[in-house]
Amino acid sequence: MLPLPGSPASSRAMYIARLVAIFRGADSRVCSAFWLFGLINNVLYVIILSAALDLVGPSVPKGVVLLCDVVPSFLMKLCAPYFIHAIPYPVRVLLFSAFSAVGMLLIAITPPYTDSNRGSIIRKMAGVMLASMSSGGGELSFISLTHFYGPFSLASWGSGTGGAGLIGAGAYALATTTLGLSSRNTIFASAFLPVIMLVSFFFILPRKPISRQAATAPNISEPARVPRDEDDEGSDPRKAQEEEGLLSQSSNLTGSKLFMMSKSQSWRAAFLQNLRRSRSLFLPYMLPLLLVYIAEYTINQGVAPTLLFPLRESPFKHYRAFYPTYNAIYQSGVFISRSSTPFFRIHNLYLPSLLQCLNLAILILQAFFGFIPTVWIVFVIVFWEGLLGGAVYVNTFAEISDQVAKDEREFSLGAVTVSDSGGVCIAGFIGMALEVGLCGWQVSHGKDWCEQL
After folding, report:
1. Which residues contact 116 (CB under 8 A, 6 or more apart)?
2. Rounded to whole angstroms, how far apart are CA atoms 28 and 327?
3. 323 versus 212: which is more confidently predicted?
4. Cβ distance 399 to 352 under 8 Å?
5. Is residue 131's pLDDT more than 80?
6. pLDDT tens profile 132-184
């Protein structure tokens, strides 16, 4: 950990020495590859949410886009950890990159939604769901992959996912406003981003750790050989050949049955074992991650659109500017905290999760009663919200890497990813109802600002 400013050990030379010590042993190729994995895997999710209004038009609830962008990812993370280990990592990266590209292309080439062409929204949402499924599978695969590459790979992944929020939202705004590109052309260009993921995996990432794992992994589907009886070694070769010919059909059938039984029992035993592992992961890791995501995405989707102030008391000229500013501040906090594990670790995951729930309560009360005197205090709370959410995310997986037994770590890292998507799904439903309720309450009390967005 770095020394505090002003302490005797806080000289410039000491800081440099501590930084060098912190990053000693870090492989630049591993860090670069995992940072790009986190960035590309999450940036398409951010771009889709940023383009929600352009995708469905003003008459369709934006929560539709959120749910289509989250539910397939949640289902993938819920089911895939129990069978995805049978698919090698190179095949997974190829499949998920292809799904992402096809999904974004489907969104881009589908004509805009109109009253006379209502089927276009179904095709666009199909593309969103395909990209979402790919993002969910990619996240559980790459987090599981950090098991083979050490703590710096996890820190780099977390930093990349944090950067995706800033870069994705910023790049979409830059392309559609400053550069004047249409949303269709911007999404079409983003369909080629998964190529970076392929380059990162096949050309930047060192392959020895996973190649060594593949070489030493047992093949559970291979039936065991039955040793020959020693008394048969001196038998007549022609007699043995006749017996082999007479019994070949029955022995082949018997061997096939044994093979199928062995394979079926192996898969069933592995599934039950992984199910027991998942239960043991719920309280220490899954629940705090689930809670923090429910709280922060309820804030982002349901409460933040109603955290408005009179324009004369704010730095904005339009009420529409509040929400994207909150989002940018939140993403900045997420990026900082997700990049923090080499410098700062949190071992008690429930403390920041409960603090996030406190943030939710405070901001709901603010939406009702407006007791916070200035928007600048809300900016600080939203930044704190991002810090807490990012910290719980990255420290959850860091704790698993430290605390879970090595032979169970790869599965555990992938299985716990279901909590963040589950939290976003729950928050999506809560947020849609909460935003309507808070806005209606404000309008009934003479504040119609939320209707001017």
Report:
1. none
2. 31
3. 323
4. no
5. yes
6. 999 999 999 999 999 999 999 999 999 999 999 889 888 887 888 788 888 88
| Residue 35 in tokens | 């940072």
151 near 159, Cβ under 8 Å? no
Only one residue has tokens 């039936």, namely: 223
pLDDT at 253: 42
> Is 334 exposed, middle or buried, given 0-12, 13-18 or 19+ CB atoms closer than 10 A?
buried
Q: Which of 106, 144, 151 is nearest to 125 (CA)?
A: 106
* CA dihedral for 440, 444, 445, 447, sign (positive or negative): positive
Structural contact between residues 362 and 418, judged by C-beta atoms closer than 8 angstroms: no
Distances (CA, A) of 317 to 307, 309, 322, 326: 15, 11, 10, 15
Q: For residue 270, what are its two tokens?
A: 């592995």
Considering the entire predicted model, what is its pTM?
Answer: 0.81
In the Cβ-directed half-sphere of 411, how many Cα atoms lie within 13 Å? 22
Cα–Cα distance measured from residue 100 to residue 76, given in angstroms and rounded to the nearest whole number = 14
Half-sphere exposure (Cβ direction) of 113: Cα atoms closer than 13 Å: 18
Token couple for 336 = 């900082």
Among 161, 90, 120, 76, CA closest to 396: 161
First to last CA, the chain: 44
Q: At residue 114, what are phi and psi to the nearest 5 degrees? A: -140, 170
Residue linked to tokens 């860091």: 398
d(CA 421, CA 347): 22
Contact 104, 190 (CB under 8 A): yes
